[in-house]
């Protein structure tokens, strides 16, 4: 597996750029970076402009005396170094450069976090022979690294390494489990599941960044195949609904709503309480001394005082300002409790109705069978001499 920490092409490029003979190249590169930095962001135009610059510099490097006797690999290393240098310098200008990209990243991340609470391999029709938690975990780790790098090549290598782990899993399953390989029919569902389990940060922006700024001559063969599959996985997740999965629509909607409550209630409650306890003195309109919160150790050994600041307070310790905070907390708790109860009740009713429907269907079948048996007996008795 190729690692993303291998930096010799970049180091070699920098070494040659320090040579006085490369001064003309250095000036061209720096001039482009400065001029590009001062233009308004437009991803599609930006991508075309950078690709044209890479092509111009490739021609200049191949014709330059410093690379006159270089092999194709050495020249390619210089071009890789050029791409990394330019895109690292322009990363803040080109990555997630529009409000729309930021919004899409947040929406995808939020949807994946909801799916993580209930989605299982069987919902994507992944065969049991391909359900290997150890391999999936390794693939997830590779994909999660994507946001740690600024160069398109290094981001792409994270995708390639993740995909190779999955490919090895498919190959091993075909050998040891006598599983007939299904090609993309097997690969893509596993990649989708791994992506959901990993929830890589800024997935949309990372894929867009690679597509726009990786040298086009390198987006071929294996790299292009794996990148295309991850783009397809992202699109599948964005459009994912009950029809996309092996799951009933009512169950899918209930699971998503329950996941929203699970994700929202604890975070909002803790945030609200902490903000009010931290800034209580600033919000306190009363002249009294603020409450001295007692810390209580909970059953798990943690301190509960920070999350429930009034649990151990005495009535005489409360101030006028505490009344306002307690009322706000009370409203938050009642609102969330009511919402949670309604959701749980809805889940229970829906499941009971489905269960009753199955029972009625079963009883109806049983009654039809009994009626036929009775009718048969009557006919037999009437024909007896």
TrEMBL record:
Domain of life: Eukaryota
Molecular functions (GO terms): guanyl-nucleotide exchange factor activity; small GTPase binding
Domain called VPS9: residue spans: 102-246
Compositionally biased spans, kind Basic and acidic residues: 355-378
Region annotation (Disordered) ranges: 355-385
Any one of the GO BP annotations: vesicle-mediated transport
SMART domains for the chain: VPS9
Pfam families (UniProt xref): DUF5601, VPS9
A single Gene Ontology CC term: endocytic vesicle
Family matches, as PANTHER family: RAB GDP/GTP EXCHANGE FACTOR, VACUOLAR PROTEIN SORTING-ASSOCIATED PROTEIN 9A-LIKE ISOFORM X1
UniProt-recorded name of the protein: VPS9 domain-containing protein
Organism this protein belongs to: Gossypium tomentosum
């Amino acid at each position: 597996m190729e690692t993303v920490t291998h930096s010799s092409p970049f180091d070699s490029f920098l070494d040659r750029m320090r040579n006085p003979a490369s001064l003309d190249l250095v000036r061209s590169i720096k001039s482009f970076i400065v001029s590009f930095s001062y233009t308004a962001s437009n991803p599609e135009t930006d991508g075309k402009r950078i690709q044209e610059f890479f092509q111009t510099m490739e021609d200049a490097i191949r014709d330059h005396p410093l690379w006159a006797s270089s092999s194709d690999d050495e020249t390619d290393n210089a071009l890789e170094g050029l791409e990394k240098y330019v895109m690292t310098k322009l990363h803040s200008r080109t990555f997630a450069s529009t409000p729309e990209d930021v919004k899409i990243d947040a929406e995808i991340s939020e949807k994946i976090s909801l799916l993580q609470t209930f989605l299982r391999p069987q919902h994507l029709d992944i065969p049991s022979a391909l359900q290997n938690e150890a391999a999936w975990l390794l693939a997830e780790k590779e994909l999660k690294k994507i946001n740690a790098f600024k160069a398109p090549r290094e981001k792409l290598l994270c995708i390639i390494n993740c995909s190779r782990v999955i490919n090895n899993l498919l190959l091993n399953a075909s050998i040891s489990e006598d599983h007939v390989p299904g090609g993309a029919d097997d690969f893509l569902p596993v990649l989708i599941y791994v992506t959901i389990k990993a929830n890589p940060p800024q997935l949309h922006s990372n894929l867009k960044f690679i597509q726009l700024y990786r040298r086009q001559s390198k987006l071929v063969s294996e790299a292009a195949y794996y990148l295309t599959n991850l783009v397809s996985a992202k699109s599948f997740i964005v459009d994912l609904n009950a029809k996309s999965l092996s799951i009933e629509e009512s169950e899918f909607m209930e699971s998503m709503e329950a996941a929203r409550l699970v994700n929202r209630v604890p975070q909002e409650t803790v945030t609200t309480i902490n903000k009010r306890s931290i800034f209580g003195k600033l919000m306190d309109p009363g002249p009294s001394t603020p409450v001295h919160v007692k810390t209580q150790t909970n059953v798990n050994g943690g301190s509960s005082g920070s999350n429930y600041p009034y649990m151990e307070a005495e009535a005489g310790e409360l101030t006028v300002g505490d009344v306002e905070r307690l009322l706000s907390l009370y409203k938050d708790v009642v609102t969330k409790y009511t919402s949670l109860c309604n959701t749980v009740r809805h889940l229970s009713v829906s499941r009971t109705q489905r269960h009753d429907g199955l029972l009625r269907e079963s009883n109806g079948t049983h009654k039809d069978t009994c009626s036929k048996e009775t009718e048969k007996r009557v006919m037999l008795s009437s024909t007896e001499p």
